[in-house]
Structures are given as structure tokens and as C-alpha cells.
Amino acid sequence: MKKNPLHGLMTPASVAVVGANNNPMKMGTMQALSIIKDGYRGRFYPVHPREKTVLGHRAYPSAADLPEAPDLVMLVVPPDQVNLLVDQFGSLGTRYAVIITAGFRETGETGRRLEEELKQTAARHGLRFLGPNCMGIINTQLALNLTVLPVSGEPGLLGMASQSGTYVTQTLSYLRKRGIRFSKAVSVGNEADINIVDALEYLGEDEDSRAVALYIEGIRDGARFIEVARKITRHKPVIAQYVGGSAAGARAGASHTGSMAGPDYLYDGVFKQAGIIRVHSVEDLYSHGWALASLPPLRGKRIAVVTNSGGPGTAIANTCDQEGLEVPGFSDALQEKIRPLIPGHAASGNPVDLTFHLDAQVISTVIPGIIAESGEVDGIIIHGAMSHGFMRDVYPHIKEMTGDISLESLLKRFEPDLTQTASLPWQYNLPLVISSFFDSEDNYTTAYRERGVPVFDSPEKAARAMAALLRYKEIREREKAVLPILPKRSTQAEAILQEAAARGQKALDEYQAKKLLAAYGLPVTADYLAKSAEEAQAAAEAVGYPVAVKACSHEILHKTERGLVHLNCKSAEAVRAAFSAIRSAAGAAIPVIVSPMIRGERELTAGVTWFPGFGPAVLFGLGGVFTEALRDVTFRVAPLCREEAEEMQRDIRAAALLGEFRGMPAVNKVKLASLLEALSYIPLLHPEITEMDLNPILVSGPDPVIVDALVVLS
Amino acid sequence: MKKNPLHGLMTPASVAVVGANNNPMKMGTMQALSIIKDGYRGRFYPVHPREKTVLGHRAYPSAADLPEAPDLVMLVVPPDQVNLLVDQFGSLGTRYAVIITAGFRETGETGRRLEEELKQTAARHGLRFLGPNCMGIINTQLALNLTVLPVSGEPGLLGMASQSGTYVTQTLSYLRKRGIRFSKAVSVGNEADINIVDALEYLGEDEDSRAVALYIEGIRDGARFIEVARKITRHKPVIAQYVGGSAAGARAGASHTGSMAGPDYLYDGVFKQAGIIRVHSVEDLYSHGWALASLPPLRGKRIAVVTNSGGPGTAIANTCDQEGLEVPGFSDALQEKIRPLIPGHAASGNPVDLTFHLDAQVISTVIPGIIAESGEVDGIIIHGAMSHGFMRDVYPHIKEMTGDISLESLLKRFEPDLTQTASLPWQYNLPLVISSFFDSEDNYTTAYRERGVPVFDSPEKAARAMAALLRYKEIREREKAVLPILPKRSTQAEAILQEAAARGQKALDEYQAKKLLAAYGLPVTADYLAKSAEEAQAAAEAVGYPVAVKACSHEILHKTERGLVHLNCKSAEAVRAAFSAIRSAAGAAIPVIVSPMIRGERELTAGVTWFPGFGPAVLFGLGGVFTEALRDVTFRVAPLCREEAEEMQRDIRAAALLGEFRGMPAVNKVKLASLLEALSYIPLLHPEITEMDLNPILVSGPDPVIVDALVVLS
Q1: In chain A, which residues have their Cβ closer than 8 Å to the Cβ of B654?
Q2: What is the predicted pLDDT for the residue at A358?
Q3: Contact at CB, B248 and A321, closer than 8 angstroms
Q4: Residue A457, Cβ neighbours under 10 Å: how many?
Q5: Contact check, Cβ <8 Å, B251/A329
Q6: By the 8 A CB rule, do A412 and A334 touch?
Q7: CA contacts within 13 A on the Cβ side of A49
Q8: Mutation site for B-interface testing, chosen from A152, A243, A267 by largest number of B Cβ within 10 Å
Q9: Which candidate from B34, B602, B662 shows the least CB-CB separation from A397?
């Protein structure tokens, strides 16, 4: 396996910066300051054409003047200087670059050419780079920070890769306040060389990163993304926000990093295939990512709720329920242990409601300890562990009554030893999540955050973070996807496609399409092609009445509306009449298909569409009239493995319809999975197929049967 | 109209408190301190059996010793003292009480009895009260605060009524930090007397409250809730969170305030009927509520996005799109005005992306001003208006380079005049919402908040708040619901029900059910009842072939599965055969129904279910096999007006199916609305009907026809 370039890029022993000077308000200077001030112990070389020293460090006029080839160079210079500098550093032997400079592909044709040159120059030297148009990297293990803002504190646990630089810079103090700490963070910018999939792979391999968060505007190498993510998510949670799924989002993203977006439903499927937890806001990305990184894994669904107030307790319980978590009533034995610790009228059954209570140790430590000990739950959510925040608030009112004691002295009186408060998750291997309306002004909030226990500013958020742990439990426990081995290309299918191509067809006709599907083992109706009324009658007799008679032409769409489909023909006369009617409605001497009538109340659909960056993707969902009306469909990128083909069947809202339903047998899920798998191979084996549409697929008895099919060619 | 008791209760000229002493850590004392310290200018009377003074105020041993009957008394005493005190104050002439004390209905039978006594005592004196088990009230206009925590600052604009006391107390500093200010806040507790509907009505009438937020665990008087809300929401936004919709939420709520919860889908319908915007977290409740209260209304869907970073800009655009807002490309003329103000490579088309930029006046004032002036948008979202937050962050790095200038002096250098910064919404009558990763440490965040412009800590939240304004625009502009006048009770329907009751039927048979529906003008199939094969044949001839022949018995459910339905009988023989087959399958001499066969691919359903607190509610949705599999249904409380019956048709996911669809005509929406309206009257006119189920309703041509019906009796 080729080594990921980020292993080297993220751990340089020496860093040169071009574009820093002694003006502290200049971007490059701020970034150099981050290297100097945040504790990086490697060698640092400012390069500047005129300054003798930059930020107190000896400056070198050019790359050639440096005492060594730095492992990494950061460029914060105008776009027209980038290529030359990369060439110079590359010649010197520098292997990695972080190119902050913007003004490349994202700005149009000139920028695009500049970016191409840059790629070629770097490749010539074997130099690997991030950007251009990125905001730098952070490696908290090395105290290496290439962003404009300071990073401080202990090394963190969350690895971050972002197609927006803001999410590894502008948010640094936002994150610090919330106790969220990066292990490593990578801004990938335009991804001219190293891309977000490389960053994902690297963070997956990185032992300091216990979970990976991704901000995505568009993936260019979809197949590798899925492959890489799938491997990681078996042992490490990955969480992602995708914002390119709407027209407005795609347009905004394109002018930002020139990224290529795809529809939202495609990414829904991609993330499922990859085992990635999807979120829809940057707050959830960070905070759920942090919960996944910092807490022990969730082993079951049972959650205890401990609160100092009924409202938040109810909101937590309700949100848990909606998210698939359970809030089980406690056993009598457990309630008996809790009851002496809470007021007489308070609830002990789960939620435990302590009501207004000033001794926060009971709510934060004593009761959660008893609950953890009981083994009755798999996780705990606490609302209302608070002390100093409340005291600070109430202080202006009580000041005089306490003999004008200072706020600090008052707080000291309410300063329990909190060293053990947040240890519970690790003591019992049990995730703990906190909800509090008090922020860092409260000693409990601070104590929890310092010890890696996530604190949320509202009850629903705490419950939803716990649900993210449940999502990862489900992903961890699902069957491993085994990449399928594609069958050999069918010579029969090839012949059909060649013939169609020779005739200049833009689509296969229904007969050809079904023969192609049958060549790969898909269950189609046993059709006959008939060019005369006599042939049609003979076909009907071979099929057995009743039959369907349909026009067969690659040029005709919407057959039903045009009177070119005659269903349920029960006799020779009916078949012959249908044949004539079709001929006259079509106005041309086209053949007909004679098909057995398939009875089935349940109509499904499957199909294939190509997406840039991902290639062919398979659609599955409700068919017939409901395809359009309900859009109850799900997507996966081809090829599908068995597990994915089965998951698609559980994915649709109408999944219940596939089970035993109103006296109908359950759909044979193995046969349906096989159909979807085989369908997914076809566009990969025959890339000239641009679209496939099997609709309806009727469920006959338990078996799916493809009744109509469209195959569009490039 | 009876005057709402809260007008008096919220504006007392004098307040007595029982349960405060000189211990500042006691709840009642804290509440008394809030009255004394927060600026209330009315008369204050502590009542204490032993203390001579309480909190520096002369204390009175009992109610009888007071110099006057206080307008309002607050009780923070053990539950067994409450009744006596209410009696004493009531005798004295006090008209209002706020009862903080818990330990009533929410704790079980003893508490329930105590609460009943309390209600009787209060009623005897004409005394109106909030609680018990509540957390007090806040009236910022009077600086009257009865909660345990301080309230400071200007009077606010958001009225709040809550079934959890926490949401008007524990969150006060949370709200203050976010610039959200209550006009009035009411904790309703157990609602033994004044309930949340009273509070809603009061806040609707209150001129200081520009929007109303509701935290709801369960509504007891559903009909009045809808009526009151409907009136308010025509001119004032109401936003609500409901947490009782899951089993866990309902159980937690019951032990909290003893509230009565209903399913989530019912409340979805109720909120729609009432014109209430529904949210699913307390954060959205407050922050969207504040946006609705503080900003001018949104006049259209077009939103400008101005950002200092591509990622947040893309996230805002994407969220806008998902929420039904538009982010239109700007005209060339507008872009030309913007371009000189931003870097050459930056995007000007909407989003406008200034990229990294230290002069926040350009992003906060200059560009938004130009955009507002253009008239091309209806609202603006800004991300990245920041200065001091960023400087504070970067200060440790640049300190020495600036000659060890103090942070304060540095900040002063970056201190533009922000008095105009947040005036834009009122200058252009255009809502403005801010996203910033910097909190109160930033002068822009603070300036916006001080001037009532909402600032959110992430891009998606800003976009969703703007979407809340769009929701209210839709509500304001929708047709007014006109409460229907119920028709007279049909004597024919009454006769059917009486006959069924006389026979001890628990349900009507299909023939009776359809006759009952027909009596109210609902479109049912023209059926005949037949007690012999001959009668069946005669009926079929009257109906016209083909016909359906079905067993008719109020005791038989699941007819299809038991072979008691014979469809598509095309001849006399077939009808007679069906009759015999049904007789033998039923094993009893039951009659059959002979119905015309209705052709229609689209199957709908409608029905009636009773819900505690709300009475009968009407369901409408997809019928046939899809009712169970898709649960694509919507609810409204009876009686329905025309607008509601039409809105239900737009509500379902499969709404497209009701339009022109695949060559089928659009469903006649007037006839379908009439069907739903008439259906909604029936359970109100005949309360002995506990459940109705019309399934399927087939769409024949454009017309809905009820093909099967079940009516269950109490």
C-alpha cells in the first residue's frame, strides 16, 4: 500500500514559510506566529526577499539560501509566485507544501491553468501538497499549527478534514470554549494534489484521532472515498456534513473551492455505504464528533436520565425516544436506592428528577454512580449539574445578606472536589453526556469539559449526541461489506449492445433490454417478439393466456399513454386485435412483445444513474405510480455487495410492504438483493449504458419480476 | 368576552410572599429577593410567623395582619399549608396567587385531592391562581420577577408560557447571554386554575409581546387552544415545542406536572390548525421565537448571503434551499457595485464571499446596505462580522510585535462606531440574521444583540431562523379559517344509530355505515342489501354489472381475508355464486351488500379517532395497502373548515398523486374537502361514535367515492 503523504506532511522536522513578514495583521505573519508561539519544536525558516529577520527569526532571501531543504514549506504569496516557489523548493528537495494562496481553479479558466501548472511542477519534483486555497494544518501532538489563530491546551482526540478552511481556523475559539480538541486538522482547499480522501485515510490510520469529522462540499473520487471510509468505520467512527446537495449549495461550493457537488440523496446512500454518520450542521459535526471521539462506545440502547427539572428531563426522554434510544423504567430495587437521595415528591423511575437542589454532587456523582452500578442502562444523560453558574447569577441578589462576602469567597464555599465527577464513563465504560444551561462560568461544566465529557447547552442536543453513539454502534455491528467480484462480461449482452450501436439506437427496445438483463440473471418476464398477428397469437399460446401485448420500439416512450399497451388479453382474438390496434396507434410496422401477465399488488422499481465523481449508482424504491408521487427511493454506488442490497430494502419508508403484508407473502429478500447486485454490475461491465430504469418490478408470490425495462445508451 | 385573569395577576400593585425568610439559600427567599432587587416598584409584604423583618422589609405574622389585601400573593410553603393560606388571603380580598409549592396532582392520589380542595377554596373566594408546582412569573415592563434568578436589562419582546418552570428560570442567564429578552413569562405548573391556554390568550393580547413561545407537555382543552391560537396567529407569531409525543416523553411529563399527552402526529395537526410554528428543541423555541419577536416580518423568499468564508456561506445557502428559501444570483448591476469592495478572486454573485478580511464594517454595513438598497432580496444573512473576538484570540501571538500594547488598547484601535451596524432591518424593513463563531467577546456580536438582531453560533442556525420567519409569512398569508356551522343532526342517521344501539351493536355494518355517511352527503357507493341469491341478482341488475358482493355484518372484520368479498362479478351467475360462497364462508345466514365496481388506481383513506383533551380528530391520507405501509397521513381536530380540509390534501407526502397524474385527472379537491368537512361533523353530532374508518376511498374519474366504511360505537 502506498504511504499516505499526510504522514510526512503532518510531521515535519522543519518548516519554511514564504509570505510572513513583521506586520502582525498580515495573514502569512499570523500563520508563522502560530508556528512559533504554539510550541512547535522543529526548525523554522522564514523566507523573505528583503527582511533580515522575521518575527525574531533569521530570514532567508530565497529557498536556495536555506541551510537545509525544509521538510515542509508553507506558501502565503500572490498566486503568480506559487509555481516558481514550488519549483525552487522542489529542486532543493523539500517534499511537502501547504499552499494557502487562493486564486486558482475556484476563480475560473486562468486560475485553472495556473493550478494545472502547479500540479505538474510539484509532480516533477515528487513534492506533495495541500491546497491551494486552503487554511493550513494542525497537529496538536507536535504543537504544530499552521493556521492564523492560536491553538492551546492538551492534544485532542478528534481528527478533522475540511473542504472549508474556516472549520479548522475561525472556529478554534468556538471549539476551545466547548472543550472540543482536535488531534489533527487538515484544510484541503482546492485538492489539486492531496484530497479529502487522502485526509480521511490518514486520520483513519492516525492513532491520536479517535474519531474523524469531515466537512464536505463535493467528492471527486467517490469509489475510493467509499472504499477508504468503509475500512475505517469498522473500527473508528467517521461523521460528515455535506452541504453541496441543493442547487444553492452546489453553486456556492463551486465558487468556493471549485468542488463538484452531487444530489443530497446520492450522498445519503454514499455515507451509508461508507458507514459514515451524517449530520446537517457544523455544530453537530463537531459536538457529535467529539462525543464519538471522547466517550466509551455505547453498548446498548438503554439510557438513564437524571435531571434537576422536569422540563429538560421530559425533553431528553422524548428526544431519546425519537432517536431510537430507550428510557426504561428503573427496577424497584434501583428506585429504592435513589429515593432517599431525592425529595419525597420527586420522580425516581427514570427520568430521576431531583427538582431544585443545591448540592450538585448528588446529581452529578452519587445518583449516576448508583445507576451505573445497577447495570440497568447503557448510558447516562444528566441535566442540571451546576453550582458556580447558579451562584454567580444569584450573587447580586444575595450579596448583602451574606455580609457582602466577595463572589470568589462565596464560590469557594460551593467548591466540591470535582476530580472524580467526570470519571464515571471510564470507570463503568458507559457514555455520559451532560446538558446544562450554564457555560464555562460553571465549575461543573468546566470540570466535565476538562475531562472530556461533552456538555451541551440544551437537553435535546445531549440526547442527540447520545444517539450519534447509537448510530455508530449500529454501524460497528452491521455485517461487513465484502466488495463483490464482478462477473465476466456476457457475450450475449455485448452482442445486443453492439447491434444496437450499429443501428444507431440511443436506447434498447424493451425486448433487447430484457434479454440484456436476463443475460446477467435478472428475473424478467418470458417475452416473445412478434412481427405479425399470427406470430403474436402463437407467442400468446406459448406464454399461456392471459398475456400482455406491447409495442416494442427503442424510439417510443410512454407506451401506455399512447395506447401501445394491451393488458390481460385472454384469447387469440384479443391478441390479434391488440396487435392491429398497436400497429395503427404506432403508425408504423413495429413488432410487439407478448408477455405473460404478472399479478402482484406490490410494485417496485430499480434503476441506474451516473453521477460525476461516483459513476453509476443504483436506485431502489416503490414503483408504479408511486415512484413519482412518493419518491420513496434509496441510492447506492455500484457495485453493490449483498449487505448493501439488503440494506436498501430496509431503507425505504415503505419497507413494511416488503414483509408479510395483508395476506401476501414476504418478498424474497435474497432474490431481490440478487437482482439489485446484478443490476449494479451491468453499467460497470458496459459503460456505454448511461441509464437503466426497471419499472415496474412486480412481486409475484414472493418473487420480484421485471415487467418493463428501459436501457439508455451513450 | 371574559377578561383573562393574567391581566390582573401579571400587573399587581402589591405582592405578598409567604415562605421567604432571611436564609438566602432558601427558594422562597430567592424569589422574594427577585421582587425586591430587580426594580419592582409596587408594595411588597413578606409574611412570616416569627421573623420581624424579612430581607429588610417589615414582616407580617399572617395575612390578617397586613395593612391591605395585596393584589397578589406568592406561596412557597409546604403543600399542607397552601389551602389554608389561600383561604386566608381570599377572605382578605386578594384576587391572585402564584403557588410555587409542589406536591399536588403530579405526585398521585393524595396530591390530587389536595389540589381539588385548593381549587374549591380559591373558587369560593373568586381568587385566580397559577400553579401549584410552578416557578413564578416575569413582567419586564414592571420589573416584576417572581423567579429564583435575577432578571435585568431592557424589557423584552418575547412572551413565554411554559409547562416547565425551568424554561422561565434556569435559562435566564442562557437567554441574557444570547440577547433574548422576555416581555412576560409565565410558568403555569399544574394548571389547577389558570392554564397554558389562558397564558397564550393573555400573551396574544399583550402589546409588549411581539411573539409568543410555548413549551408544552400536554394540552387539556384542545378546542379552546386551537380557537385562541388561531385568532392570535393571524397577527402575531406563536411558536411551540411539544415534548409529550413519545411514550418516554409522556411518562416523564406525567410525573412532572401530571400533564396529559397525545401523540406527536396529533399535535402536528393541531399546531397547523392553530397557525403555530412547531420546533423540536428549546434552543429553536427561544431563538426562532426571538427572531420572530425582534425582526421585521419577511416579505418574500429571496435571501442574500454575505460571508467572510466560503464554507459557512455554502452551508447557509444549502440550508436556505432545504428550508424553502431562495438564494438568487444577483443582477450584474448589483454585482458591479459589490465587486470593488471585495478581493479580486472573491465571489460577488450571492453568496458574496469577502474571504479573510479585517475591516468588518464592509461585511456588516457597506455591502448589506448596497444589497438592501437594490431591492433584490427580502432578507439578509451575514456570517463573519467580527473584530474583537478575533483580536482577542490572536492577541497572545501578536502582543510583543505591537510593543506589548495592552489588549484593551489594541481593541480600541479596532473599535468602529457600531451604532448604525444593526439598524439595517428597520431602515429597510428587511430581516437580518447573523452567524458568528464569536460570542459576547466580540463587539459585533454584542452590538447586534443589543439592538435586537439575532446572532447564532453557526451558519445553519441563522438560516433556520430566517426560515422561521418564512413559516410565519406563510401562516399570515394563508386563508383565514372560518369556524364551520355544524349542520342539523340527521334524523336518518339518528335512526340508524338508535337501531344499532337497540340491537347492542358495537359497530355499524357496512350498509348502515354508508347510509349514515350518505345522510350527511358523503359520496358512498350506491349499495343494495340482499338477503337471498335472488335479491342479490336483482340488486346487481339494478346496480349494473360488474358488481362487488360482500358479506354485511357488524360482527365481521377483515372480510377480504375470510373470503367474504367477491369483486368484479360480471353476470347473474357470478353474483349468485358469490352469494352462496359468502354464506358458506360466513357460516351464518347474513345478508350481503351488492355494490357497483368502482375503478380507480388512487386509493385514499379518511377516518375519525378520539383523543383526550381534543375530542374527535379527522385523519386523511393514502389508502389501501399503503395506509399501513407508509403511514402517509395527516390529522386535524374536528370540526374542519374548508381551508383545513384543503390543507390536509397538500399535507401528505403523496400530494402529487392528487393532482393530474399519469393521464389521470386531478382529484376534485372541493369534493374531497367537502367529504372531509362532513366527516368531521359526524362525531360531534353523534358522540356515541368513537371511531370511523373510510378505507378505501377510490378516486373515480376526478371524484372520491367511499368504497368501504367502518363506524365503531361506544
Answers
A1: 626, 629-630
A2: 67
A3: yes
A4: 22
A5: yes
A6: no
A7: 4
A8: A243
A9: B34
Q: Which residues of A touch B252 (CB under 8 A)?
A: 305, 310, 313-314, 317-318, 327, 347, 351
Say whether both A220 and A95 belong to one domain: yes
Residue (of A186, A227, A257) closest to A6 by Cα position: A186
Asked if residue A572 and residue A631 are part of one domain, the reply reads: no
pLDDT bucket at B24, cuts 50 / 70 / 90: confident
Q: Any idea what the CATH number is for the domain that residue A550 is in? A: 3.30.1490.20
Burial of A474 (0-12, 13-18, 19+ CB in 10 A): middle
* ipTM of this complex: 0.95
The span from the CA of B391 to the CA of B402, in Å, is 12
Which of A123, A248, A46, A640 shows the shortest CA–CA distance to B301?
A248
Domain assignment present for residue B513? The answer is no
pLDDT, tens digit (0-9, with 9 covering 90-100), for A573-597: 999 999 999 999 988 889 999 999 9
In angstroms, what separates the C-alpha of B428 from chain A's closest C-alpha?
25
The parent domain of residue A182 ranges over 5-293
Find the DSSP H helices in A323-451.
Answer: 332-338, 360-361, 367-374, 388-398, 407-413, 424-428, 443-450
One domain for residues B378 and B256:
no
Mutate to test the interface with B, among A26, A170, A626 (most CBs of B within 10 A): A170
Both A604 and A657 in a single domain? yes
Look at residue A133 and tell me whether its pLDDT is greater than 90.
yes
By the 8 A CB rule, do A132 and A82 touch? yes
Of the partner residues A244, A315, A601, the one whose CB lies closest to the CB of residue B625: A601
The amino acid occupying position A368 is P
Which of B214, B243, B302 should one mutate to test binding to chain A, selecting the residue with the greatest count of A CBs within 10 A?
B243
Give the residue-averaged pLDDT of A377-396. 94
- Dihedral sign (CA A482, A488, A489, A493): negative
CA distance A372 to chain B (A): 20
Q: In the structure, what pLDDT confidence band is assigned to residue B646 with cuts at 50, 70 and 90?
A: very high
Q: What is the mean pLDDT of residues B204-208?
A: 97
Nearest CA-CA distance, residue A192 and chain B, Å: 17
Output the domain CATH number for residue A18. Answer: 3.40.50.261
Contact check, Cβ <8 Å, B313/A256: yes
Quickly state the pLDDT bin for B250 (edges 50, 70, 90): confident
Contact A401 B55 (CB under 8 A): yes
| Cα distances (angstroms) measured from residue B323 to each of B302, B468, B649 | 12, 9, 21
- Contact list in B for residue A353 (CB cut-off 8 A) is 255-256
Q: How many CB atoms lie within 10 A of CB B176?
A: 18
A78-112 per-position pLDDT tens digit: 999 999 999 999 999 999 999 999 999 988 899 99
CA-to-CA distance for B194 and B132, rounded, in angstroms?
A: 10
Chain B residue with Cα closest to A403: B24
Number of structural domains in chain B: 4
Convert the pLDDT of each residue in A645-689 to its tens digit. 999 999 999 899 999 887 889 999 999 999 999 999 999 999 999
Do A189 and A221 lie in one domain? The reply is: yes
Q: Is residue A542 domain-shared with residue A668, that is, in the same domain?
A: no
- Chain B interface, best mutation among A27, A259, A314, A460, by max B CB count within 10 A: A314
B107: nearest CB among A249, A345, A630: A345
Which CA distances in Å does A526 have to A523, A547, A595, B327? 9, 11, 6, 51
Please judge whether A103 and B656 are an interchain contact, meaning their C-beta atoms are less than 8 angstroms apart: no
Concatenate the DSSP letters of all residues of B597-653 into one string. PPP-S-EEEEEEEEETTTEEEEEEEE-THHHHHH--EEEEESSPPHHHHHHHHHHSG
Q: Which of A436, A470, A441, A440 is nearest to A456 (CA)?
A: A436
Which secondary-structure segment (H or E) carries A490?
Answer: none
Contact status, residue B186 vs residue B162, Cβ threshold 8 Å: yes
